[in-house]
Design goal:
The chain starts with 9 loop residues before the first helix and ends with a helix. It is globular, with a radius of gyration of 18 Å. It is built from 9 helices and 4 strands, in the order αααααααβαβββα. The longest helix has 17 residues. A 4-stranded mixed sheet has the order 2-1-3-4. It has 2 domains: 113 residues, N-terminal domain of the delta subunit of the F1F0-ATP synthase (Peroxidase, domain 1, Orthogonal Bundle); 72 residues, 3-Layer(aba) Sandwich (Glutaredoxin), CATH 3.40.30. The relative contact order is 0.12. The chain is of the alpha+beta class.
Length: 200
């Protein structure tokens, strides 16, 4: 990856139009990364690394500030990012991608790029992607129950994009594809929310 806006291979571009909006910066970067990861047969490994980095942004106010704040120079962001990736054991394509985004002053858009990349991987695997916002970290059993509930409604395996926001009311908000949860799913989600409260 060179330090410039990514060029999307034609086949990847055609594939991506069904999963992400390639007219957006995040869509272009994610599609270029997906094409490279596909060639290297590393789409899953890259996703795992990006998921880990995304979770680190959610867990660390300092990292979130580094990613989002315009006050840091490219050099400051690059040095800090290099140290963070090394400490987290994130290398290969994912690390090159994050460093490219930093060099191009696009680190602020990385969370959206990761979301778009997840959508591409899910599409390739025939999965659906659900955006889940919770008031606190979910336990493994709640994540399993949520995946099962969403699969029963969508008919597909569902990849979860989980964000933590203590300010949300009700403790759990789910968006599956382009729609918010419908009635058929609400009862199952209520049961999961109840289990989350009981587990405290």
């Amino acid at each position: 990856m060179t330090s410039e806006e990514p060029i999307i291979p034609t086949t990847a571009g055609r594939f991506a139009t069904a999963a992400v909006d390639v007219s957006t910066m995040a869509g272009r970067y994610a599609t270029a990364l997906f094409a490279l990861a596909s060639e290297a047969k590393a789409t899953g490994a890259v996703k795992a690394d990006l998921d880990r980095f995304d979770a680190m942004i959610g867990d660390s106010a300092d990292l979130a500030r580094l990613v989002r704040s315009p006050v840091f120079s490219i050099e400051q962001q690059g040095q800090a990012l290099g140290a963070i990736l090394e400490r987290a054991g994130i290398g290969g394509l994912a690390a090159k991608f994050l460093k490219l985004a930093t060099a191009n002053r696009r680190l602020f858009a990385v969370p959206d790029m990761i979301k778009a990349y997840r959508a591409l991987v899910a599409k390739a695997k025939g999965e659906a992607t659900a955006e889940v916002t919770v008031a606190e970290k979910l336990k493994d059993e709640h994540i399993k129950a949520l995946r099962a509930a969403l699969k029963s409604v969508s008919g597909k395996d569902v990849d979860l994009d989980i964000k933590i926001d203590p300010a949300i009311i009700g403790g759990l908000v789910v968006k599956l594809g382009s729609r918010m949860v419908d009635t058929s799913l609400r009862t199952k989600l209520n049961a999961i929310k109840h289990a989350m409260k009981e587990a405290r």
